[in-house]
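Tutorial, part two.
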Amino acid sequence: MKKVLTYSLIGIFSGVVILGICFFSFRMIYPIAYKNEIEKYAIETSIDKALIYAVIKAESSFKANAKSSKDAMGLMQLKEETAKYVCELNSFEYITNKEELFKPELNIKLGTYYLKYLINKFDGNLKYALIAYNAGETKTREWINSGEFDKNCYKISLNYYKNVLKYKKIYNKIV
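Running the prediction step on this input gives:
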């Protein structure tokens, strides 16, 4: 009887450890960081917080110091010109130094407001807005006007869009 109880306890303990490892691994892959900032700007802009998490996951995997080869910076991978444009559109104080884009709260604020701008600009079409976030508004307009959007759009931008939607589904379940 003691052996059965011991083996049962070992089995339960092992199961708990395995579940803990799986949960920890899942949280490493889909972190819930910067919760207060994301919720704040989700409310201010009326953007689903799961979408903001998904864009951050796709853009930087939650690395605040991320920098692309195209000089996009921070969690939401903003270029200095884009950040200044968003500041101008929303009457925000201009950033004085592009290194400020590595500050999580500022980056999330400007990135979320930029995403809101694109969603409005493309009449609520999330596909076009997200592709514009990735490839640029001008390029996205060219593809739309060509009449063959999916054929002309960069494959990497279409994949970006699909990834953001996939991440958004996951974040909808966990935030």
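The mean pLDDT is 89. In part three we will examine how such features are distributed along the chain.
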